[in-house]
Amino acid sequence: MAKWNIDKGRKVTGGKINLHRKKRRFQRISLPLLTKLEKERKRVERRRGGTKKVILPSAEFANVIDKKTNKYKKVKILHVLKNDANPQYVRRGIITKGTIIKTELGDARVVSRPSQHGVVNAIIVEEKSK
Question: Residues 48-60: pLDDT tens digits?
């Protein structure tokens, strides 16, 4: 079912507003896609103006950068450790921006938006000494 980003025909107080036109195609919105930790899949969608958008429904690898050496390396994601966006995302294995993931190189924080950018980029998290 399509979702719409339109005026609903109601005032803040609850009064009715007579709408002067019907829904338009450009007013449709897409549902949020949550990138899961599974076998990697990518999807390309056509957006407004003919642009293409790469969407990542599930990810298996991450591009991790080590700040000390400034080198990227593609490594396997082992599991999700922490997600401040929603604690339930950890149990479900969902990756969003800001998620702490366990990789082969160590713990890393996701700095990209996987469902929007089509790739998981992360930075190694340095453990704080007590």
Answer: 899 999 999 999 9
41 inside domain: yes
Residue 64, domain extent: 32-124
Write out the DSSP string of the chain.
--EE-S--SB-TTS-B---SS---GGGEEPPP-PEEESS-EEEEEE-GGG-EEEEEEEESEEEEEETTTTEEEEEEEEEEEE-SS-THHHHHTEE-TT-EEEETTEEEEE-S-HHHHSS-EEEEPPPPP-
Burial 91-111 (b: 16+ CB within 10 A, else e): eebbbbbebbbebeeebbbbe
Domain count, the chain: 1
Indicate which CATH number applies to the domain containing 69: 3.10.290.70
Q: Report the predicted TM-score, pTM, of the whole model to 2 decimal places.
A: 0.81
73 occurs within a structural domain: yes
Q: Is 9 contained in some domain?
A: no
